[in-house]
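ERR on first pass: missing label on line 2. Operator R.T. fixed the label and resubmitted. Corrected input:
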Amino acid sequence: MTLEEELERFPLTGRFLFGRLRETLSLEERAAIEALPEEIATFENSVRVVEAGTVSDRSTLLIEGFMMRGLDHMDRPGEQRSALSLHVPGDFVDLHCFALKRLDHNVDTVGPARLAFVPHTKLQDVLATMPHLGRLLWSSTLLDAAMHRQWIMKLEQLTTPRRIAHIFAEIWRRLDMVGLAGPDGFDTPLTQADLADMSGSTAVHANRALRELREKGVAEFRRGRVIASDRAALEDYADFSADYLYGEGQLAIEAKHYAI
Amino acid sequence: MTLEEELERFPLTGRFLFGRLRETLSLEERAAIEALPEEIATFENSVRVVEAGTVSDRSTLLIEGFMMRGLDHMDRPGEQRSALSLHVPGDFVDLHCFALKRLDHNVDTVGPARLAFVPHTKLQDVLATMPHLGRLLWSSTLLDAAMHRQWIMKLEQLTTPRRIAHIFAEIWRRLDMVGLAGPDGFDTPLTQADLADMSGSTAVHANRALRELREKGVAEFRRGRVIASDRAALEDYADFSADYLYGEGQLAIEAKHYAI
DNA sequence: CGCATCCTTGAGGGCCATCAAAATGCGTGG
DNA sequence: CCACGCATTTTGATGGCCCTCAAGGATGCG
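pass 2 clean. output:
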């Protein structure tokens, strides 16, 4: 099914796992997912949707826009924050809190966003009646963990310009999977300060790193728009390999194993 | 049940989730876990147990010793590696590969270790018949993700001495939970080069960072033995808070939610 | 006792943080 | 349409953390 058809039939959740494991879901299962949200809401830029430490009985699915998971720095709340992951439409942002209940980080919007809230009671019903779907939900939280690991590697190994290039490469691939990227770039609501948070750097240095990317011809960043005419060069510069996103290439392998 | 009793009845898997969510497991469920391993094996220091990229049909439970998940740096294989997580006895090291099948990183021993291999077919049987246990297995993979997030924060926010102090503080707490720590420190097979890999630094700089920890009275590290007389000072210095480990303090909350 | 591994120390240089200030773009309201 | 305020971006200067290369010292094992 194409993305357009998918979104026609499942306008809220059609992007969930699209380009990855969605193909292994039956239509009944996709319908069950579409029926999960109890409430749809729209938020403005930089709104804290869930606060770290709170016990929650619902999870957030991102329909439209971007979100970030992070933590305020303990010394100066609100000033310097630690970015843990960025989320694009189709992501079940804090599904893991269904199993852990208490969230260990904040969940904020980056730019305006439309969200679907899924009560955990409904998830529990789905798990009881649709075990295969339950396993796929599990997998989707593990994709998050795989991205975490790549971020760790990125922070341990790369300089700031390469870290930012890696961020660009990852977001681009992920937007691609849900049909929201262009042929030579993509749009985000990110600021240079956001990039600094994600790369463990400062806004000033992120600015200089972006200049280097521009001068090297790797990528351009202007007010949230990322343009890179040579995608291979960008991914090469960032030591980026899309394997950890478990995208289309791996689907053949996965689908076989998921045929319970 | 005390840890001693637990290990008496479940010598292989008695430490799995001990001090965290194990209390929510029935005796039948614990017995089911104990019956999972198909093979027990002992390995020497620095043995690669699973190679990145391979499709695996079994997962590894760490019974005794330490393991590390990581990636070799692309340019110089075997030389500079990126450490992603360290594992202690009781950890279901690569359980996530049950759901994702393909591993995105290597799994190596650090020092000698005793491992239990669990075939995925057995896990599948357990999931089919014991849904509650299945959810707990899910949770255990999410604890890994929570630790990943804390590592990301650690790398983004802290200097190398504080990163190493954070590593010490985390390992100490985790060894505590499975009864393997002392009152003023703990033993590991880690070298200074390992600490460097874990903190995204170099062996030389890790050495200087350890000297600073020693001079500041935060912690001592001598041939794998970590000694810190003032644990609060160590955790304070490292900006460490054990919440993300979802240990005993949170059990009351969790247990309630897990009473399906 | 010899060897391998690990630890330690020095010197030089590069990446990045910090402080400070100015320029640019953008929405609001006059 | 212009003025204004505000967030964001840009640039400079200084200093600190950390990398790299190099060499020597300690420890443990056969």
